[in-house]
């Protein structure tokens, strides 16, 4: 963050969470999509960085006492535990806004395409996407949700940015409309698979590996797939979405194994 002309504390807080580790699944999906179309992945680096910044900002804000009130993230103290609540809020704000600056300044991409990527990202991250999903998640606490209500939350809170990852790669690769539609379906299903596996790991995962206490969702009285469907029912639903993601990917006929492997990784990960 050295190039930013901003107060040191804000830069340090932004840097702390951005470099705290994680799976980087969104940037990986974007670059893997470019690779699937035999494009140079380097053309997607700015978009991939912007995506990770938005995801990181959302985690900083999610962890705040007014939201999930978490002390650990990726096995490390959460941002507000290190820098204080005010600095954490500003760090999240900084990452969100800086992401669009980075995307707007991408070199070698036509202005029309940059505008398309910016518009889609704003929608995926905003009140019709991630923000809306988080709001619904908070409103659903201490309530018994249906599978459909839970799916709405995760389709928006988690799935919209994952879908954007694949769509951005396809747009940068000049994919056709039919391919973009099928890749969006692929991303929709792996987004739900991602969240279902998260819920499963909250029941039977390892605190050391997932970087937060096991059972935290249960303790906060959140509806989860295992709570609604039973653990075995959640695993069956996971297999369903994994299979659907692969069907959409196969139909897109882009002939790349990496996106198939990512789907399997999402469904089998242990952290």
UniProtKB/TrEMBL annotation:
Keywords: Isoprene biosynthesis, Magnesium, Metal-binding, Transferase. It holds the Pfam family polyprenyl_synt. The keyword Nucleotide-binding does not apply. One of its GO terms (molecular function) is metal ion binding. This is Farnesyl diphosphate synthase. Gene3D superfamilies: Farnesyl Diphosphate Synthase. It catalyses: isopentenyl diphosphate + (2E)-geranyl diphosphate = (2E,6E)-farnesyl diphosphate + diphosphate. One of its GO terms (cellular component) is cytoplasm. It comes from the Bacteria. Belongs to the FPP/GGPP synthase family. It comes from Bacillus salacetis. One of its GO terms (biological process) is terpenoid biosynthetic process. Transmembrane segments: none annotated. NCBIfam families: FPPsyn (NF045485). Its EC number is 2.5.1.10. The keyword Disulfide bond does not apply. Its cofactor is Mg(2+).
